[in-house]
Write the structure tokens for this entry.
Amino acid sequence: MSAGRDIQALIRKVEVTHALAKDDVVALLRDTHYVEDFFAAADRVRRKYVGDDVHLRGLIEFSNICKQNCLYCGLRRDNHKLKRYRLKPETIVEFAEKAQSYGYRTVVLQSGEDEWFDVETMTYLIKKIKEMDLAVTLSVGEKPREVYQKYREAGADRYLLRIETTDKDLYEKLDPGMSWDNRVRCLIDLKELGFELGTGCLVGIPGQTVESLADDILFFKKLDADMIGVGPFIPNPDTPLAAEKGGTFEQSTKVMAMTRLLLPDSNIPATTAMESLNPQGRVLALQRGANVVMPNVTEGEYRQLYQLYPGKICINDTPAHCRFCITGKILGIGRRISETQGFRVKQA
Ligand code: 5AD
Ligand code: SF4
Ligand code: FES
């Protein structure tokens, strides 16, 4: 059997079984001849398991202050070039109200690891937003289990915490002072506490191999993550990785498509970083396995200041404009905007 037929056979196999050995995942990620067939299979699986509805999540970037120092990230504490901000709780609640008025059914509260937002403040925010009949997703980093438990008791529904990479040595090199084991501990705690669990990885970080990306995808599967966000690493000039190459749009959508094939009923966003590399990035991602978009609902100058990487889209746009813009893109490819809160519907 030729290598070409092997690849096509693998695509057929994973489309039906949603299971694959690591070597086969690697072979598919490396292949360059049948990429369109591979994406088409991911698109069919997306349609079969999660349908044509696209879930919108309104993203509020409420603080760009972070105590961590991840080498790839613009919010790292040693980046003194960045003007820092922290929204007042009342402002965050106001942005959530606006998100609701624009028809969002979920808000995502995202920030750097900012200790100013203690359990009491977060509890207040979660309760306030839950009163608006919105699903609440948190994306605020590593915390002790007790803290996650308080967030959950306050009513938070979901939690996003990317593993970034499953290569422990690489992780600890890129995230100085952080422990990979603790990150996994966080993910397991979150799952046990009953959050819908989101994780994901960066594609194209220096030192990452295709084998390591295959491990990432198999890790998502083993964890049975409910949501998986995959995005290209985009070098930030104000970080130690300024001169690195970064990931490509193509490779990050391949990792995303593979994730769809292996976790067919999960919620997978077309990520902002993908569109930052390709003007059609989110629409293409939606046609290669994604079923979620997370438009920004942060207002004013804060968007510019939440600078994880350069070239971030929508930094000069308003929430109203983004809502309109993304609706056009989604309807334009024959998909629908979901009217539900968009929890994962597990299929046997
Ligand atoms: N390029 C792309 N994504 C990045 N993130 C942080 N820095 C970068 C970068 N330079 C991602 C991380 C983090 C998420 C909030 O942003 O994966 O989990
Ligand atoms: Fe902080 Fe997250 Fe950026 Fe790391 S990736 S520096 S934890 S905001
Ligand atoms: Fe923000 Fe298109 S989604 S401008």
